[in-house]
């Protein structure tokens, strides 16, 4: 019987909870809404999925290897609001008190860590659930790796599920092709330019027609 591994992108889900829920504070006036939202999602996942293993990964506030490759990476992003920033150490304390394994590594983003863990866990014969608000992780969806994308709106959270077959069905591309789609269209959120005058619709059409960037140029 396969073990089930639950991997969570800490900053990503905390951020989603912060913007998807009303602001909450404790008796001392400290902001707690994002932590509350994160834990609501976590407890829901633990109850429904009953994982054998759980790990939460966090970003480190330091340049990554991508900044070394491209200095302008994420250069247009605004800083994290103080009301959210102050909740990061609080969430880590709560997870530590719960005995939850958490990982962070200078030079890497949380999704780099989680992607590597997911691939290794699948190779070891496990079923993997990776929870993040970052659609870029659809590139690692597989037969036994399911990407969960939570959406919190008006205090209600829904989750989209993507195995490799779901990526193919809903987007019309395989996970491997999804990587090339992103290369063509770029990523405005990360300040990564794509091919000039090629947006998401054009890039998707090209990939569905020709199958790959190499096929487009052939």
Explain this structure to me?
- A hairpin with a 2-residue loop joins strand 5 and strand 6.
- It is globular, with a radius of gyration of 18 Å.
- The chain has 10 helices and 6 strands.
- It folds into 2 domains: about 170 residues, Rossmann fold, CATH 3.40.50.1010; about 45 residues, DNA polymerase, domain 1, CATH 1.10.150.20.
- The model has no long low-confidence stretch (mean pLDDT about 95).
- The chain is α/β, with parallel strands linked by helices.
- A 6-stranded mixed sheet has the order 3-2-1-4-5-6, sandwiched between helices.
- Helices cover about 45% and strands about 15% of the residues.
Give a quick summary of the entry.
The chain is of the alpha/beta class and 218 residues long. Helix content is 45%, strand content 16%.
Mean pLDDT: 93
Q: What is the CATH top level name of the largest domain?
A: Alpha Beta
CATH topology of the largest domain: Rossmann fold
Strand neighbour order, sheet with most strands? 3-2-1-4-5-6
For the structure shown, list the relevant keywords.
218 residues, single chain, DNA polymerase, domain 1, alpha/beta, globular, 6 strands, six-stranded mixed beta sheet
């Amino acid at each position: 019987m396969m073990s089930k591994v639950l991997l969570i992108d800490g900053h990503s889900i905390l951020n989603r909870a912060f913007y998807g829920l009303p602001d909450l504070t404790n008796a001392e006036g400290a902001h707690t809404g994002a932590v509350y939202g994160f834990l609501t999602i976590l407890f829901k996942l633990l109850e429904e999925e009953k994982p054998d293993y759980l790990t939460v990964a966090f970003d480190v506030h330091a340049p990554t290897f991508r900044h070394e490759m491209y200095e302008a990476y994420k250069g247009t992003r605004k800083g994290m609001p103080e009301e959210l920033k102050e909740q990061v150490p609080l969430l880590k304390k709560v997870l530590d008190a719960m005995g939850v394994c958490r990982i962070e590594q200078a030079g890497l983003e949380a999704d780099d860590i989680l992607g590597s863990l997911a691939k290794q866990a699948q190779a070891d014969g496990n079923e993997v659930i990776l929870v993040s608000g970052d659609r870029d992780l659809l590139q690692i969806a597989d037969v036994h790796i399911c990407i969960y994308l939570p959406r919190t709106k008006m205090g209600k959270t829904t989750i989209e599920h993507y195995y490799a077959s779901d990526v193919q069905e809903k987007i019309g591309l395989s996970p491997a092709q999804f990587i090339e789609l992103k290369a063509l269209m770029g990523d405005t959120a990360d300040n990564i330019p794509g091919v000039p005058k090629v947006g998401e619709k054009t890039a998707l059409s090209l990939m569905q027609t020709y199958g790959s960037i190499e096929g487009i140029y052939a």
